[in-house]
Amino acid sequence: MICAPQRLHCHKAHHQAAKQTPQQQLRLRHSRHTTTRTSSSSSSSSAVTSPRLQQVLDAIDTLNAQDPRTVSWQGQDLPYELAYSQWLTEWVLQLQQQPSEELRIVARGQHVQRWKTPRSSYPEGKAGYFQWREGLKASHAATVVEIMQAAGYDEASQQRVTRFILKKDLKKDPENQVVEDALCLVFMQHQFADLLAKEGPDKMVDIVRKTWAKMGEGGRAAALSLALPADQAAVVQRALSG
């Protein structure tokens, strides 16, 4: 039976939200979230945000806040990539007890300024699609590394983040699987409905199977806890029983 996971974000009064920028709103959610994790964990090191990490997260949020596309989330219209980065951050923090700074940076910057490179900027067809995807990853990695350099991160940290975003050495670094799981969970929780309406249930069964194959045990367990609507849950059940 599919049940709802514990909410990791905090609701704010509407009049408070109206006075804050989207970045400030998401920073408040993230701060409260890490405080909750600290109180329930024997180790508080994972909840500490160093000044340089905060500098990187803020810089990424500032870029993502420029997204002209919006999404309604918790009663607010937010820039889409700003909201997406928070969804990904929340899942990473749920899946990983003690996330490294590199992992938290990747969660925030995985799709930084993604709207600037639309699919239409590459040729049509399967080959063009894969070129687009590779171009996106390279662009995201370069942007995040530039921000990390400005904050004083060393070459090793920059290279690790680059590998994460480019999805290199997936099996060699356990935190790489956390990123993949979080991406799949964001898809299932926030993007599933639109794609189901576009593609139909039969094609979605195949998509879910491919998504499931990318996920580790922790990600799969989290996926099974999602409170999906009946039509989406039926697709997942078909995919996993086939």
UniProtKB/TrEMBL annotation:
Looking up Pfam families in the UniProt record yields: DUF4202 (PF13875)
Bias (Low complexity) occurs at 36-46
Extract the InterPro entries matched here.
Answer: DUF4202 (IPR025255)
Q: Where is this region: Disordered?
A: 14-51
Query: What is the protein name for this chain?
Result: DUF4202 domain-containing protein
